[in-house]
Amino acid sequence: MFFFDFGVSIYFFFFNLFLSGHGYTEGQMGVLTGTMAAGNLVGALPAAQLIRRTGLRTALLVCFSAVPAVLVARVISTAFPIQIILAFLTGLALCLWAVCVSPVTASLTTERQRPLAFSLVFSLGIGVGAAGALAGSRLPGWFALTTGGAWPLAPDQLTLIGACCIALLALIPAVRLRACGAAVAARTGLLLTPAVRRILPAIGIWGLVTGSFAPFGNVFLAGHVRLSLHHVGTVFSLSQLCQVAAVLCAPLVFRRLGVPNGVFTMQLATACCFLLLAVTVHPVFAGFTYVALMGMQYMGEPGIYSLMMSAVPQEGRGSASASMALVLGAAQLIAAWCAGWMFTALGYPRALGIIAIFAIAAGLMFRTVAYGQAQVLVPCADESRG
Fold first, then answer.
1. Domain range 2-378, its CATH number among 1.25.40.10, 3.30.70.260, 1.20.1250.20, 3.40.50.1110
2. Which residues, at least 6 apart from 195, have a Cβ–Cβ distance to it below 8 Å?
3. Is the pTM of this model over 0.70?
């Protein structure tokens, strides 16, 4: 997990800046991000089927092999039609990782432990991402200094290919996961129990929020706020460290407020951060607001995943995870395509205001939809008093 997250974090921190340097606009990058989300959408059901037939270990090996290969191909050619095809294949490959993580985490924990377990998993990934942002902001300069133009590839290409090589190292520990091969069984197709049907629409609205601004955060800071590349890397690293702290503190909030109310509070705070980011042009204030935004946005994720995994029996978690990936893929597909157009046509302030409205709507929907089943799914408050 460390090598894969670290390599992919370096890659996606720098990739949009790489595209921007090759003449891509926010609208084109939005199309590519939406196409990658479409790959996630299409790959959700096949990913669950692969886990059911071959086991979790084989699915992880396929993921850890396919993702670096596709990402390297995206560096070689910057032609827009080719990038669209490769973006779709990237989404297909990454979908395996998204579908595998939740079932294996849930299968190794009890219902009471689950919010904390998801917090630890997410915080580890985010913490590694912080190191990835620092590395991604400094590796191009290091390659330029050490190669001196002697290599046929540019420093930005070497940075991205190096990130793929790091991600490929995840195959070494994954080969040893023999006990996890049959740890999770997945049902065929989607699992749409009444509890899942109540949660999925709220997840879809939230997916519109998370999928709209995140792909453009580095472009916003570098282009709109006018931060240097090193400062953008520093802001990204601080934001991910803030995410680690927020995610680790999330179980305490859930125990006090309950999972649905806790998720609502965090999503309301996210909306406030979007509004602050929309009205500021001062680089330092924008950087701190971005850090707070990322912390609040990710703080509710363990609660959302815990609600979903607790809503189904163990044998159905692979299919429930695939259902969640399908809804998130559809939402992020819509969000990425629309956000790229919004940022170009309306400008960042108006677009961020619209995203804030969706964040408020998502929070209200989670509070009303999930509250009725909170005592059944994750009775955190009762357990903490017991």
1. 1.20.1250.20
2. 311, 312, 373, 376, 377
3. no
